[in-house]
């Protein structure tokens, strides 16, 4: 007798745009269109063409696309292109109907028959031969319908799927339903089949590992639909594919199964030394539960691990050992299908990449993944944070008795029932950033409910907030270097660069672990080469708009350079974020937003990987994991720029959250110059490094007197096979005075014009705030990359993505630099406005270019040269004079520009009238 009948393949179909199908009883009529399932309407090319009035699911903060003239061509029928997110080939919200003829075999007579839909999106109603079989609305688990009333023979199954937000409003920006990420698709995906079970069968098994007792406690629920008490036997056997695992013996229990349902609890010994599960050794066991009765034999297999994930003071613990969560988000981003993968291989690939970047944790932002993700995480050793498919803040809220209040209890119970045995399932919260007048009291009850119900994981109120006494841990945004709406007042943009700060003062008020919420959010320029990869239902029309804008500005040839230069700055920002977390004593962990790009919310290109989990060419997993790993050497630089009359004093420490303490591991340091030549080196005392962080290795103390030339240096600290490095800079304490034939001025006054008219040379170094708004003065310049994006953040500063320069340009001979921003550029970016170069001369090539926001794609410069009058001029929109005694970078850059102006190679090609310069 077949246990399953696969329903994958062709189904009849009909769109119900007017929502009349129930009233007109389509469940009793033949549907005439065709689709293939598993799949969605979009994968079957069903739905409406995209237009100006498409009823998207998700907030649009910047609505200028609907009105601005520059977007007019993208609003025309046949050329619709939206910048908010990836654009599907078709779009539809509302009910749609699916129908299939099935045949129940004779052997299934009198048995329990179920329809299994692994994931439906989302409210699903089933009819069999016109008779209603029920409605379900889980966004997170399989929807299973009882079809036991069907007798052998041919039947018609009709399914109505409605993806329109109903009374249960989880929030239109929830990643479980929104067009920002997976799209608000309509359909059924994953496994789709009929299955048969005996009248008496196992309905649920929960496995509770007990490491101290070297056993598991099993809780088993049995359904008896025979209406009489029946004697039965249950046999348990746990086994492992690992050859090191002890061979365990089966245990059998006899019992009587009463009518309806029965529950029993049973301890099962796991041997003398059960293999434990964690990120380093993801050992798995399979528990076979066999039920035998007069009704027949029924078997379940449960994958589990001997794992206890908990809290140890302000740390998390795994099997009694302290751990640190290094996490990223997964926001249901699947560009080819528009819905999540349901096969284990796809998720194994994702988690393999996650681990290659030094991470051990994934948070599912306002959604819960399919079974395959848990299975892959189990096998990969990834700690998962799961959320109940809700972002109850935009368009909905908690605690006021709305249907979502009860739904979250029901959905969380469904999630735990379906996935609760997976050892990777370590954290559960209700959702992302909750809101509502009474959300705090609601969430206190929610957390208490789950702490009492299931101790196999830890719980908190929500991702982001609120902090409540009931939390097992806090997930808050304060420990990060850029806050929402902080703009240029953030640590990374306001304070001189250094690596000595941490979050100790923020977390000191808490006695439980803290995870920093959504750190990073640092943007990079679009990679237009990525566009060819979109071969499925979602297309990068947003990238087409951005590419068009860059081409219109005459800058398309710089696209790859913008990507690489902004990418290097992005990595610098992420390194600063992650190292600050690793330096913080007693910290619980961090969650990046994100390791890969977030295609929605106005296009948030925050990943070092693209939406396909591929790198973009400027950093690899090997490089990233130097500063993000189980073991990371750390240096607390008080500053990143020194003079050569100073002594470098840098405390060095290490973070070790590996499997074991590091015993007698040698540690050393080296300082090299830009050519890779070794200048200084030393060793630290050999010590045993325990599990934890803020573990002191020693102090680097080195005189810099021998560094005669301006230098970009690199400090590398090595501990065994682990290395980390930092770029820093040394400039001469004394610089020669510039020759008198060059006028250095902060305004193009009469003296400066006279100098130019006489054929002289002028360095015009403008004060910040002295550029007119329409010439670039209203462009917010900061050191960091753009935070999230300017569309979703209402134009939060900065609006730029760092510098792009030719490091071999003669003007920068005495100001060593790579082609991209590094810490020596912080001073310049903090004391400048940019100039829109085309406001002076179309195609003007600057010495120092600034990369603009991809939405506006203007040609921006900090320093450019030109002929003016009869003379030669360099215009610096960096103030290189004010407060120069405390600005060694400004002094050095000014010196380098002046040396260039004194040389024979200072021969500008472009001529700009003095009046245009004045008009800046």
TrEMBL record:
Family: Belongs to the glycosyl hydrolase 2 family.
Domain of life of the native organism: Bacteria
Domain Glycoside hydrolase family 2 immunoglobulin-like beta-sandwich positions: 200-306
One GO MF term: hydrolase activity
Enzyme class: hydrolase
Domain Glycoside hydrolase family 2 catalytic per the UniProt entry, residue ranges: 311-458
Secretion signal span: none
Catalysed conversion reaction: Hydrolysis of terminal non-reducing beta-D-galactose residues in beta-D-galactosides
Record-linked PANTHER family: BETA-GALACTOSIDASE
Protein name, as recorded: beta-galactosidase
Organism expressing this protein natively: Niabella yanshanensis
Keywords annotated in UniProt: Glycosidase, Hydrolase
E.C. number: 3.2.1.23
